[in-house]
Amino acid sequence: MEILFGTVKELVALAETQQKPISEIMIEQEMLVTKRSRQDIIAQMDNNLTVMENAIERGLQGVQSTSGLTGGDAVLMQNYIATGKGLSGDLLLDAVSKAVATNEVNAAMGTICATPTAGAAGIVPGTLFAVKNKLNPTREQMINYLFTTGAFGFIVANNASISGAAGGCQAETGSAGSMAAAAIVEMAGGTPQQSAEAFSIVMKNMLGLVCDPVAGLVEVPCVKRNAMGAAKALVGADMALAGIVSRIPTDEVIEAMHKIGQSMPSALRETAKGGLAATPTGKALEAKIFGKDNANSDLVNS
Prior knowledge:
Blueprint lengths: L7 H11 L3 H13 L3 H24 L11 H11 L6 H18 L15 H13 L3 H21 L4 H4 L5 H15 L4 H13 L17 H20 L8 H14 L16 H11 L12
């Protein structure tokens, strides 16, 4: 497969040399790889953006999952923001709420856009629609935000993993939070290198995160991990925009994530046999949802 870039170092070098944003480099790569027109590629991403917006709107109205494990937390957070008592700042809490809203819709069997996976689908749109209120981007800039996340996601998927079953939750919410941080930086006017720094800063703080879904469902702790992933994305972006750099280059951070994932025991990689899924309460919830005879069965695990 002919590509323009395969590493973050190559991506940043292209953007700097050609004086183009990372989002534009990703559009050109997509055209090269898929042999489709710019118009078709942008139209598809525009549709993805609409799906994300609809999911957030639905989640903020309040949804409940069939299992009863998740739902309503996005609304609770919006109500809390409205009190003016939030300690973390309204923008960050809004991103948290919208990330949760998206994942609650996913748990309720609604339509979402995997970014990069369904389990981590709240972080990219949650942060995008939160910073929208501060940066006032055009529709085109919002679409470009998604292409920037896609550029970094492409690199992770091809050099490490975006699968919880393969690399733990660090590969899912870790990747999503890092991708979002990079895109926030570009939208805020940062440089391609600062986007890379933001990605690194967030990913370094997600390394080792296990995938331990209670009852094998993408609900607990997945939804709240999206909340924290969104928060870290915003903080990581601010750190990079402030001029803070990662002492470990981005590509090496990605490689470290990959190796950590490979060394994780299977109980901590989406099998629902370890971590929070193996706690007394986790097991009790599984038994309640699926029945005692089916609890701990491999059939329940995603």
